[in-house]
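Sample entry (265 residues):
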Amino acid sequence: MLEIKNVYKTFNAGTINEKKALNGLNLTLNDGDFVTVIGGNGAGKSTMLNMIAGVYPVDSGSIMIDGVDVTRMSEHKRAKYLGRVFQDPMMGTAADMWIEENLALAGRRGQSRTLRWAISKGERADFRERLSELDLGLEDRMSTKVGLLSGGQRQALTLLMATLKKPKLLLLDEHTAALDPKTAANVLRLSDKFIEEEHLTALMVTHNMKDAITHGNRLIMMNDGKVILDISGEEKKKLTVEDLLQAFNRISGDEFANDRVLLSK
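Predicted structure, serialized as tokens:
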């Protein structure tokens, strides 16, 4: 479903601010893989997601989604293949539009849009049913502006919007980092639910090693812009946070110096 082959990306090349963000990155995801991604600051995690989404062009290498070469495809054209939830609950939705209007826009992702985009009775009934699955009472607030929702409500709605049209690939970019623990746990529960029920292929970047171990069928660790550890199956189920820290130290020859990660053990 996803093939990243030998991708390089350097920002501010030739200046004192030069930063090699991706350094020969290779990664393949099979259909239905739910891969969690961990790594220290500057490891290339978010850059990888941005490259997949087309936010930045690659310097070299290629990116394929479900057999389609999207390497040179613009961000808006490859959006039809992707669903994405960002760290900031304020992103991914239109704050001044109603809940049902946001869902209608998500439902039309990848389609040609005309001046006529009224929500049909059937769509409204479908939205109500899907919102009820969030167990947040939003099905009774469909004409509420999204900007009035709490961070957790908004992130759950964004997740629903991102999966509404069953994307080829779901990108979760630290999507619970800005939430309190209880709300984060609920959003992760919903993530698991949607990914399993819709048989989605997903990449979830997280700073929480425990979450990286608990969720998904596969875990990768990044460092210096490439994958240094790739664990799946029974081996992943037996992992502990201490195992991951030791593996990082052994493979990279350095210590995992990232307070956000260590605090989330």
